[in-house]
Design goal:
This is Amine oxidase (Flavin-containing). Keywords: Oxidoreductase. InterPro entries: Amino_oxidase, FAD/NAD-bd_sf, Flavin_amine_oxidase, Flavin_MAO, TAT_signal. The chain is α/β, with parallel strands linked by helices. The protein has 3 domains: about 200 residues, FAD/NAD(P)-binding domain, CATH 3.50.50.60; about 130 residues, Polyamine Oxidase, Chain A, domain 2 (Alpha-Beta Complex); about 100 residues, Guanine Nucleotide Dissociation Inhibitor, domain 1, CATH 1.10.405.10. It contains 20 helices and 22 strands. The strands form 5 sheets. Strands 1, 2, 10, 11, 12, 13, 14 and 22 form an 8-stranded mixed sheet that branches. Helix 5 packs parallel to helix 13. The N and C termini lie far apart (about 50 Å). The structure holds flavin-adenine dinucleotide and magnesium ion.
Length: about 525
C-alpha cells in the first residue's frame, strides 16, 4: 500500500537535496518512501477540522500504510499546557523552565537523540568522544555555564600556550596565542574598522537590530560591502571577512552587515558590558573559546534530557501546527498532540519546514531570508602533542583550505588537532568521499604545524550540512533587507506559537548560551500568559 504521507525534502523547502547518507537516515525520517497523496494536501484536509476530529482521521488505519497507521493511532488525548518542538538545548531549557513552573509539557524531537547542534561524535577507530558541534564556553555565557554546573559537567581551559599560526595565502606567520593576530602590515589597517565596530556595539539595541538609527543603511549591505567601504587594504579585508566566517561559517558576501553588527554586540552579557566585543567573540582566555567541557559539551543537553525523559518523544518530526482557536494541534510522525501553547525551538532556517495552519506569512518571509552556515568539524588524533613540543598552541587562523580555524582538543589521554571546515569549503566537500575530506584537512594541518600532522592514528569527521534536522551550522544568518523588514517576526509570538532557538536570542545569539536564554525567555512568555 502506498504511503499516505510524503515527508518534506530539502528541495521542497528551497534547499538542494541533502545527501541521503547513513547519518541522516540514522537520525530519523530518512526511511519514509515518497509516494501517495502530497503531504501538503493531506494536511490541508486535516486542517479543515480541528483537534480530536483531525486526530481521528489521522488514526484511520484504512488510509495509511501499516507502520504509519500504528504510529498515527497514538493520538495523545491530553491537552498539554505546552508542547516544545525540538530537544536542542533551547527546547530543553524551555521545557525545564515550564516543568519547574508546574506546567504540563511534551517535547517532540525529530531525531533519536537530544542536543541538536551539540553532539558527541565518536572517532572512527577508537570511538573517542569528540565535540562534533558546539564545544566552547566563555565569560558572560552565564546561562549555559549555570547548566554545566547544575549537571556536573566540568569545564577545562582551552589549551593556549605557545605560538599560533596566521596563514595568509601561503604565507605562514607565528604569533603569540594572546592577544590575537600579528599586528603589522595589512592587519593594522583593520584596527580602525575594529574600533568603529566597538563603538557601534557599545550602544547597540542588542536583539532588536532593526531599531538602530542606521539599521536601514547597514541592512542594505552585505558584511563584505560594509568592510570594503571602510578599508581598501587587501589583508585587512581578508582578516575581517575571515573573522566573520570563522564565527558564522558563511562568507562575508552572503549575509547582512546589520546582522553581523548585532551578532558582535550580542557577544557579551547585559550586566557586564565589555571593553572589546571583537576580542570577546574571537578570543580564547577571556573570550568565547575560553573553556571546553570534559567529556564533551553534549553532556549538558544529554543530562537535561535524562532529567526530562518522561516528557520527551524522540523520532517525532513535527510536520504541522494547526492553531484551532485557543489551542494548537501538533502533528508529528509519532502522533498528534494538543496544547494551549507551543514553543518552536529551532533555527528560523528550518522552522518553516513545518506547515503552520493558518499560514504565518510574515514569519515565513523572515525564515526564507535565513540560511544556515555550512560547516563540518574534523579532528585528527595523535599519540603525542607534537605541536606543543614545537612550541605551538595548535591554534591556526587563516585562509588555507579546507580548514581555516584550528584548536587543540583532548580526549581520554589522546591529543587532538581539531579544524573547522567552513563556509564555501564545506559546501564544496559536502558530497565528497570521507577520505578526501580527511586528506585535505590533514594537508592543511601539515601546512600550519608541520608534517607530523600526517602521523594521525584516528580521526572524526562530522558534516552538519548533511544533517536532515540541522541543514548546517553553527547558526543561521540573514540576508540583506530581512531584519529591517521582518525582524519583529523573529520573536513575536504567532497566536499560541512562541519562538526559541539560539537565533532568537538577544545575548550570545548563535551560541549555546543564546539558545538557553531563548528557551528560558519563551517559557517565561508562556508562564506570563497562563498563570
Ligand atoms: C560545528 C559547530 C560548532 C559550534 N561551536 C559552538 C561553540 O563552540 N560554542 C557555542 O556556544 N556554540 C557553538 N555552536 C552553536 C550551538 O551549537 C548552537 O547555538 C546551539 O546548539 C543551538 O541550539 P538550539 O536548541 O537553538 O538549536 P538546535 O540545536 O538546532 O536544536 C533544534 C532541535 O530541533 C530538532 N528539530 C528540527 N526540526 C524539527 C521538527 N520539524 N520537529 C521536531 N524537531 C525538530 C532538531 O533535531 C534539534 O534537536 C556550534 C555549532 C556547530 C554546528
Ligand atoms: Mg532546541
Amino acid at each position: 500500500m502506498p504511503e499516505l504521507v510524503n515527508r518534506p525534502t530539502g528541495s521542497a523547502a528551497g534547499r538542494s537535496p541533502m545527501g541521503r547518507n547513513s547519518t541522516s537516515a540514522r537520525f530519523g525520517g530518512g526511511d519514509s518512501p515518497n509516494s501517495g497523496i502530497p503531504r501538503r494536501l493531506f494536511l490541508r484536509g486535516v486542517a479543515a477540522m480541528s483537534g480530536v476530529a483531525a486526530a481521528m482521521v489521522l488514526a484511520e488505519p484504512a488510509l495509511a500504510a501499516p507502520g504509519e497507521a500504528r504510529r498515527r493511532r497514538e493520538h495523545d488525548p491530553t491537552l498539554y499546557d505546552a508542547i516544545v518542538v525540538g530537544a536542542g538545548i533551547s527546547g530543553l531549557a524551555a521545557a525545564k523552565s515550564l516543568v519547574a513552573a508546574g506546567r504540563t509539557v511534551k517535547v517532540l524531537e525529530a531525531r533519536g537523540r537530544a542536543g541538536g547542534r551539540i553532539h558527541n561524535h565518536p572517532t572512527a577507530r577508537l570511538g573517542l568522544t569528540t565535540d562534533a558541534g558546539a564545544e566552547f564556553i566563555g565569560p558572560t555565557q552565564n546561562r549555559v555555564d549555570a547548566l554545566a554546573r547544575e549537571y556536573g559537567v566540568e569545564q577545562l581551559p582551552t589549551y593556549d600556550d605557545g605560538s599560533s599560526v596566521f596563514w595568509n595565502s601561503g604565507q605562514r606567520r607565528l604569533f603569540a596565542a594572546q592577544p590575537g593576530l600579528p599586528l603589522d602590515g595589512g592587519v593594522i589597517a583593520a584596527l580602525p574598522v575594529v574600533a568603529e565596530i566597538e563603538g557601534i556595539c557599545a550602544g547597540f539595541p542588542v536583539g532588536e537590530p532593526w531599531r538602530h538609527p542606521r539599521a536601514a543603511e547597514w541592512d542594505a549591505l552585505t558584511w563584505r560591502q560594509w568592510v570594503e567601504q571602510r578599508t581598501s587594504v587587501a589583508t585587512a579585508r581578508m582578516v575581517l571577512d575571515l573573522a566573520a566566517s570563522a564565527a558564522l561559517s558563511v562568507k562575508g558576501d552572503q549575509f547582512s552587515a546589520l546582522y553581523m553588527l548585532n551578532y558582535v554586540a550580542s557577544s557579551t552579557d547585559e550586566n557586564t558590558g565589555g571593553p572589546s566585543y571583537v576580542a570577546r567573540l574571537l578570543g580564547t582566555a577571556g573570550g568565547a573559546q575560553e573553556r571546553v567541557c570534559n567529556g564533551g559539551a553534549a553532556l549538558i543537553p544529554l543530562r537535561m534530557a535524562e532529567a526530562l525523559r518522561e516528557h520527551i518523544v524522540f523520532d517525532a518530526p513535527v510536520r504541522a501546527i494547526d492553531q484551532a482557536g485557543d489551542h494548537a494541534v501538533v502533528v508529528s510522525d509519532a502522533g498528534t498532540f494538543s496544547a494551549r501553547r507551543v514553543v518552536v525551538a529551532m533555527s528560523p532556517a528550518i522552522s518553516h519546514r513545518i506547515e503552520y495552519i493558518p499560514a504565518l506569512p510574515e514569519r515565513a518571509a523572515l525564515c526564507a531570508g535565513y540560511t544556515m552556515g555550512r560547516i563540518g568539524k574534523f579532528a585528527a588524533v595523535y599519540e603525542r602533542p607534537w605541536w606543543r613540543e614545537k612550541g605551538l598552541s595548535g591554534q591556526a587562523f587563516g585562509n588555507a583550505t579546507p580548514t581555516d580555524v584550528t584548536f587543540e582538543n583532548y580526549a581520554e589521554g589522546n591529543h587532538i588537532l581539531m579544524g573547522f571546515v567552513s563556509a564555501d569549503e564545506m559546501a564544496r566537500l559536502d558530497g565528497a568521499p570521507e577520505q578526501q575530506v580527511v586528506d585535505e584537512c590533514i594537508d592543511a594541518f601539515a601546512g600550519y604545524f608541520g608534517d607530523e600532522a600526517r602521523e594521525y592514528i584516528d580521526y572524526s569527521l562530522f558534516r552538519w550540512d548533511d544533517e536532515e534536522w540541522s541543514w548546517g551550522g553553527p547558526v543561521a544568518t540573514s540576508a540583506p533587507g530581512v531584519l529591517t523588514t521582518y525582524g519583529h517576526a523573529l520573536r513575536d509570538p504567532a497566536g499560541v506559537v512562541h519562538w526559541a532557538g539560539t537565533e532568537t536570542s538577544d545575548y550570545w545569539t548563535g551560541y549555546m548560551d543564546g539558545a538557553v536564554r531563548a528557551g528560558e525567555r519563551a517559557a517565561a512568555e508562556i508562564v506570563a500568559v497562563s498563570r
